[in-house]
Specification:
The protein is an alpha+beta fold. Helices cover 32% and strands 23% of the residues. The protein has a single domain, classed as Alpha-Beta Plaits (2-Layer Sandwich).
Length: 138
């Protein structure tokens, strides 16, 4: 089984935040869902009935958008991913998002908000694999 990526590594965080990046950052999110959301380590937030990964992610997004807005962030795009036109045929994603933050500091404030952290488990339960790629305007 191939390695899954759900959370950033410490090395990746150090590398990103040690750069002298000024201004807005857009985060490209690519997500592959579990067929059934895995709340086995998060029973306190699990829905009453089993749910799909896509449904758990919908819960996550509904509860996340207010925190994103308060941090100055903006959801630029959220949609279903199709097969690559250019790229590896075996790599497929269910959902793609583009999220803009005014700065890395704003992104960090959003990602470390205590109330946000209480609901991020829905994303974890939903996600079988993901990629998060910071993008800068040139």
């Amino acid at each position: 089984m191939a390695k899954s990526y759900i959370e950033p590594t410490e090395a990746a965080a150090i590398k990103l935040f040690s750069q002298d990046i000024k201004g807005p950052v857009v985060m490209l999110n690519m997500i592959r869902f579990h067929e059934t959301a895995d709340y086995s380590n998060l029973p306190e937030i699990a829905p009453e009935n089993p749910t799909t990964g896509a449904e758990a992610y919908e819960i996550y997004m509904k509860e996340t958008l207010p925190f994103l807005g308060k941090s100055g962030g903006e959801l630029l795009f959220s949609g279903r991913a199709l097969d690559y036109f250019i790229g590896p045929e075996a790599e497929q994603w269910d959902h793609v998002l583009l999220v803009k933050q005014n700065s890395l500091a704003d992104f960090m404030a959003f990602a470390s908000n205590g109330d946000y952290l209480k609901i991020v488990g829905h994303r974890t339960a939903a996600t079988a694999d993901s990629r998060l790629l910071p993008l800068l305007s040139v």
